[in-house]
Amino acid sequence: MPLIFANPLGFWALLGIPAVLLIHFLQRESRRLAVSTLFLLERIDRESVKGRKFDRLRQSVPLWLQLLGVLILTWLLIEPRWTSARSVQRVVLVLDHSASMEAFQGDLATALRREIPPLTALVGTTEYTLIESTLTGSNLYRGTSFEELMAVLENWSPSASTHSAESALRVGRSLAGAEGTLIYVTDHVLTEIPYGAALLSVGEAVENVGFTGLRVVEEEGIATWQATLRNYAATSQKRSWFLASGEQRTASRPVDLAPGETRTLQGQFPAGGDRLQLVLEPDRFTRDDTLHVVRPAPKQILVSRTGAENVAELIASLINSVDHATESKAGEAPDLVFATYNPLQPTALPAVSIVLLNQEVVPQQFFGGAIVAANDPLIADLDWQGLIARSTPSIPLVDGERVLLWQGDRPLILAREDGRKRQLVFNFDVVASNAPRLPAFVILVHRFVNRIRDQKTGLESLNAELRQPLAVAHDTSAEGGPLTLVSGKGRLTIAHDKVRFLRAPEEPGFFQITLGSELLLNASANFADTREADFSKAAAFSDLGATAAKISERRTVSDPWWQIWLITLTGTALLCWYYLNRPRKSDDTLTA
User: Fold this and answer.
1) Higher-confidence position of 120 and 334
2) DSSP conformation class of 371
3) Residues 6+ apart with CB under 8 A from 145
4) How many Å apart are CA 507 and CA 524, to the nearest integer?
5) Closest Cα to residue 407, out of 424, 389, 426, 423?
6) How far apart are CA 2 and CA 556, in angstroms?
7) Measured between alpha carbons, how far is 274 from 450 in angstroms, rounded to an integer?
8) How far apart are CA 123 and CA 181, in angstroms?
9) End-to-end distance of the chain based on CA atoms, in angstroms?
């Protein structure tokens, strides 16, 4: 059973040993006794008659009793405790996976080497568990070696946006158990941490400047980028930046930012280029110092139109209002068909289409009743209360369709999505109504067109945020094969059943998604969480000192005989007092 001392300062009591010896080196001044004759005095050694001085150490019972008392008192003060070599302590560390922790990885290693060993010195074996606050699904480390844990941290890269660590702390407490130690490692001070976790904060105020936003505008074939730059510091900052495209780069340009200032930088894409980088002079937090930009290009939608001539102008205006939509040419299969339906002359509807009911003969009556919208993403937050539609015969209803809008008992707008059939049906005469003048009508058409665009397999270019969810339409059949994400970290194969979890990379940079040799997505991922770039509230703090004391109480046993030692100390003091104050026989004899 290894021995430890809970109060090493108690060893100062050992200074009582030289103090006792010093006292016994000093001799008392001899006392004069009046006697009648000198022959009655026995021959005695010469003693000091000048007062106290160093002479020689005289052994006596009080001397040994006093030394024994000092030793017993020291033993009680140092509070000895015993621990078993077979005792096991569980230590679970929950690392704040927020991107801001990237600026303090060196401080993190230093703090762990300073704070963790004292927690584990009192037990025979320590089981370490290291998890992230975002609960990525696996432990970063689990084992009994502190050095192996530190080696894992060398390759750890925090990248998440601002989030709550409560779920991770709950899991950490279940892993540590009621008697284990749970530590939350972050870069800012928290007033309350759930599940009895201790806090280890490794942050400090950092003067950070970085990119906060990006916008690309394209007009008449000219693409212009706009990037916002922000100074998070409380003092003025000066930085330089440059633009790089391919193997070329511009000269560095200085920029001065006042405290808290946000400034917009602007420029055009280089001729013939579809990607560029804006590079800022690096500081301690580098994640927001580079902006990767691609020229956005949504998937093209091929449309065609059929139907009566009186709706041709309306359909043409709708097609022109949709970005990146062109009418298909002869021999090209359209992705979407704008069609009309005359209830007096029924015809089959295209599988993928926007259908406008058109009776050609304008009815005289109007629909009556309240207008009620369904709870559906296609029609959410759209105002249809100003719609005025004339009463016409209905398009035949089919099983499985969703009614998006009612007026009275008449379904006005229908959505049919069954297998390969995707139809948006306006079950009223649109030309004879005021629908074309309602914003809700145009927005609904655009939403449906974008849904068709999202479901189309084709090349798309976009600028995304880090870890942004991505939806990539692709061939899901067995012949299609898995998707492949290509980024600066290499290639990642994504199985069909995992595509719904597809996200942009965790690190800034350009990336692509391919299906075999077919390129489906050309994109960039950029840091965009301004909360993580603000270090004004970062600070260092640790309350693990109290945790070490608690572990000492839980994992060690105090001296079970301390009461006996206390009684012995009391008895030693009384016995010493007795020997020092008892009457001397020589005194009694001389007095007689």
Assistant:
1) 334
2) E
3) 128
4) 10
5) 389
6) 10
7) 23
8) 13
9) 62
Residue 221, Cα to own-chain centre: how many angstroms? 41
Encoded tokens for 282:
């690096």
Provide CB contacts within 8 A for 314, sequence distance 6+: 356, 430, 431, 436
Contacting residues for 140 by C-beta, under 8 A, at least 6 apart: 95, 130, 131, 132, 152, 156
Structure tokens at 306: 């059929």
C-alpha to C-alpha distance for 98 and 233, rounded to whole angstroms: 19
Q: In what order do the strands lie in the sheet with 222-231?
A: 209-219, 222-231, 262-268
Name the region of 194 (left: φ>0; alpha: ψ -120 to 50; beta: rest). beta
Q: Give exposure, 246-265, as e/b (b: 16+ Cβ within 10 Å).
A: eeeeeeeeebebeeebeeeb
**Token pair 């201790």 is at which residue?**
198
Q: Hey, CA dihedral for 98, 99, 105, 107, is it positive or negative?
A: negative
DSSP reduced 3-state for 77: helix
Residues 6+ apart with CB under 8 A from 587: none
Q: Look up residue 182 and give its amino acid.
A: L
Alpha-carbon span 283 to 231, nearest angstrom: 12
CB 400 within 8 A of CB 416: yes
Integer angstrom CA distances of residue 251 from 19, 294, 486: 78, 21, 30
pLDDT for 286: 92
Report strand pairing: 483-487 vs 490-494: antiparallel
pLDDT value of position 591: 47
CB 297 within 8 A of CB 460: yes
DSSP state of 48: -
Q: What is the model's pTM?
A: 0.72
Q: What is the pLDDT of residue 82?
A: 63
Tell me how long the chain is.
592
In DSSP notation, 266-290 reads EEEPPTT-SEEEEEEPP-S--TTSE
Chain segment 433-483, per-residue pLDDT in tens: 899 999 999 999 999 999 999 888 889 999 999 989 998 988 777 667 889
Which tokens belong to 82?
Answer: 């015993």
Calpha distance 182→139 (Å, rounded): 15
